[in-house]
Amino acid sequence: MDLRYTDEQDQFRREVRDWLAGHVPAEPLPSLDTPEGFELHRDWERTLESGNWGMVTWPVEYGGRGCNLIEWLIFEEEYYRAGAPLRVSQNGIFLLGPTLMEFGTDAQKARFLPPMAAGDEIWAQAWSEPNAGSDMAAIRSRATRVTENGEDFYVLEGQKTWSSRAVFADWGFGIFRTEPDSKRHKGLSFILFPLDADGITIRPIRQLDGDAGFAEIFFDDARVPVANRLGDEGQGWHIAMATAGFERGLMLRSPARFQVTARRLIELYRQNAERVSPATGERVIECYLDAEAYCLNTYYTASRLMAGGRIGSEASCNKIFWSELDRRMHRIAMSMLGARAELTEHAADAVDAGRWLDGYLFSLAGPIYAGTNEIQRNIIAERCLGLPRA
Description:
Helix content: 40-55%
Shape: globular
Number of helices: 11
Strand content: 5-15%
CATH class of the largest domain: Mainly Alpha
CATH superfamily of the largest domain: Butyryl-CoA Dehydrogenase, subunit A, domain 3
Low-confidence stretches: none
CATH architecture of the largest domain: Up-down Bundle
CATH topology of the largest domain: Butyryl-CoA Dehydrogenase, subunit A, domain 3
Mean pLDDT: 88
Largest sheet: 4 strands, mixed
Strand order of the largest sheet: 1-4-5-8
Structural class: alpha+beta
Number of strands: 8
Number of domains: 3
Distance between the termini: 38 Å
């Protein structure tokens, strides 16, 4: 891998930086887990699309720029450097979008990708169930195929939980058991469904901060066309694992996110260096180096994919690394802030508008979402290291 940027890549970086400088909101948007904040973040997605920045790696015909993964990493670096809003459409553009590119029909790509890139349709991720969290093979929600008046439908029954963005989103994606007597990984299908369909009920789940970032989804005789199935019937597990690879390995958590946090942590240490121990400084330096190492590893992964490689089980290593790094950085920040760490954004003496507290609370979920780190360690042991199952 050549660590030097080409002249074209440097020019691309300048183009991204200049556009963001003229369009990023001057003030942070309200939380995207509130009704007002969600719609303002959706408007931001439309602003991105107006500049053709909705999803730079997608083909032009689907609302993208046709950029390669190195250019996407450059875009992400400038995006986070500019302090641009979080992507409310991340479940769609970073997870479902690449999955549609790989497994979708031409009709599905034409139908779903352009409005996804434009922010017109926001997607919720609907994997987990009450008894099937990290163990997705235990899924019990059913999709029964029926034919009425010459049209083929799936009748959806069951429950999903911890569905991110489901309170305000437009569509959801998940896997359902289409073969009633199947077990574990067999007989599952990947299905797309509108969240406002008859027979679908959404119940918000409040987070630690009180906002409804997640929801339960109940299916009671909800009907969706068979054309909404992604891939072949029974291929759902294979497709879902490809989606999980995008989530754990590359797209969902770009290194720029953690590099920005590491730089903010250094600045926080400088402001408090006289009253904290030298050991804290060493921990801060270690976090910075780890963020840079993760960046280099991601560039390596992107280069390998561009050369025809694929993301495999090693994606689990990435997921453990970035989730634990994020938690560690925020814990160090909280320890430096002391009692001030508990102040929320509206408190008079809040540090950095309470961003460290908000980031800390979110970082606690990192080892859980996208598959718990305990499960990721099992995957690494069995599939990467070839160790026997216990």
